[in-house]
Write a structure and sequence with these properties.
Elements lengths: L1 H8 L13 E2 L2 H34 L14 H26 L4 H5 L2 E5 L7 H25 L3 H17 L10 H6 L1 E5 L8 H12 L1
Antiparallel strand pairs: 1-3, 2-3
Helix pairs in contact: 2-3, 3-5, 5-6
Amino acid sequence: MSKRKSAAKAPPHAAEPPVDTPSIAKPTTRLVAIVYDGMLILALLFLVGTILTVIGTLLTMQTGVNSDEARTLPTWYQNGVMTPAFVLTLVGFYGLFWRRGGQTLGMQTWRLKTLNEQGRLLTWGEAFKRILAACLMPAIFAFIGGLVDGSRAAILTSAFLGLMFNYVFCAFNRRGLAVQDMLSNTVTLKMPKQEHEGLWKTIRNRKANKK
């Protein structure tokens, strides 16, 4: 009898909480992550620009002793060396982080992760394709701004509007995908807390698995 009573009084097992699953990242969260990453990218571009400016000055210019003798770097150096270096810095930043753990530092803060259609980390080719896809609309908008006005301010403003269009597009897509998601066959997910793994932990785990 005592065993029956104790069994009857035993509380039922509590229902397990529902397990969250990864979902398509919302545009607002993506934009906040871009702002985070933008600060780091600007610092990297400033560093690269400073180094190349010093090198270009030593190689192509005579150092003046007053402001009247100061000159700008040659156009061929700015367009043929500095611009490609800035592009490679941008590609290297996103490509390296996406290849290593699927997320940049800004994305890690907001538990975002970029994967391909098979749910795997991007290859270098997929990362480059995604970057080109993200730059497509800003480039088109900048071209139109240049035709309409032609000033640098108009071109930069148009390019910014093109960047915003990539994420406004999410509101009109049934799956909530951005332009670069569709064109590159990749997706940025919002990871649940219990399944989220930090970038540095991911890198350490991958190194441990290789051993």
